[in-house]
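Hey there, shall we discuss this one?
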Amino acid sequence: MHGIQIDVDSAGSSTGAHQKSLWKIQIGRPQQVALLLLLLFLAQCIWVVHRQELSPADYRFAMCGRQMWERPSPLAGYFTTCGNMDGDGTFAYRVAGLPLTTERLVLLGIDQFRSPQNRLYAHGTLNGTTWEARHELISVKYLLHLPFVFFAIWLGAGLWWVARRLFGNEGGAFALGLYCFCPAVVRFAVTPNNDVLAMWGLYGLVYTAIGVAHAMQGPRRKWRPRIVLLTVAMGLTATAHLLAAMIGWLLALVFMLYLAERRRSYVMEVLIYSGVGSLVIVFASYAFRLAPFSYVFTGGSARFLLSLDGARRFFIDAANGPITVAALVALVLFLTVKRCRYFGNLAPLFAVALLFPVMTTQTVARPWLWALPFLLTFIGGVFADVLETRQRRLFLGLAGAVMVTQVLVCVAMLPSIAL
C-alpha cells in the first residue's frame, strides 16, 4: 500500500560514532511465498478477464474516463457525458480511461511516421468525440480491467507487508492467502469500479497514519515524507469514495491519538493539513474545474445509515464460508486468550467493527468490501499468536484446512465470476 517500504539495515563503525542506512532487498522464503500467492491471484484474474465480455458499465467507464483525460464534455455545464460525478468518484474513471488514452496517443504518434495519404487520422488528430478511435484500439478489455487487478495486487502486497511486520511470516502468509483466494476480491478486481480503489486507499491510509504516529516519536525531519504520504493516501481515497476517506480520517485520528503519546498535540494539526491537501487532490481530479468539484459537497456521496445487511450477505455466502469460520475462531480467541489482545490485533478489529455496519444511501458502494483487508489482517494476527502456543499443531491444522478449503471454493467460483 501507500506505506510499503523496503527493509533498511543499518551499518556503522565499531565505535558507533557514524552510522548510515544501506538499502538491502531481501528475497527469502517469505517473499517467495508472497510472490507465488500474488501470481496465483493474477492468474485467476486474467483467466476471468479473458472470458468476460465488455458490458455497458465498461463502456461508460472507458468513455467518461477518456473524456476526463482528453478534453471536457461537449455538454455545457457538465464535467463529462456521465454528469458531474457527484455520486461517484473520479478515480475509477481515470484509472479506466488512462490506458485507452495512452494507446490513442501512441497510435497518433505512430501515424506521424506514415505518409500523409496513408495516415489514419487527418491532420494527426481526432475529430469529433474522444471515442472516435475505438475501432483502432486493441485489447480494450484488458486495458480496461487489468489496471484494477494491479491495484488489487498492490493491496495484497500491502496486506502481506503489514501483517508480516506485525505478526511474522505465518501471519502474513495466512492473511495474504485468504485475500488472494477470496471470491469477492477477485470479482471486484476484474471490473472497473471505485470500491476496489477505496479498499486499496483506505487500508493504506489507516496504516500510513499509524506509521506517521510512530514517526512522531522520532526527529521532526522524518515526519514530513510520511505526512506527505498520508496526504496522498487520503486524497486518492477521497477521489474513489468520499465516505471512505472520511472514515479513514476518523480511524487515523483515533489510532494516532493512541500512539502519539507525548506528541498528541500535533495529531490534529497533521490531520488538518492532510485533509486540506486531500481536497486539493480531489480538486485536481476534476481538472481544477470549480463547478463539478462543488458537487463533492452537495451531491450527498457521503450519506450513510447503519445496517448489517452487507455483512450478513458476506458471511452467509457459502463462498466465504472458510473466511467466516476463521473470523469466528479468531474473534473467540481474541476475547478469551490474553496474548491476542494488543493493539496490532485491536486496530484492524476496530476498523472492521466500524465499516461493516455502514451502508451508503446516495451512491451504490460496498463498505463491507473496504473492511475485508482489515478483517484478514485481524485473522492473520490472531492465528499467528496462537501458533506460538502449545496448541500450535491444532491451530496449524485448522489454518491449513481453512486455506485449502478457501482455495477450492474460489477456484470453483471462477466460472460464475466470469459471467
About this structure: Residues 1-23, 126-132 have pLDDT under 50 and may be disordered.
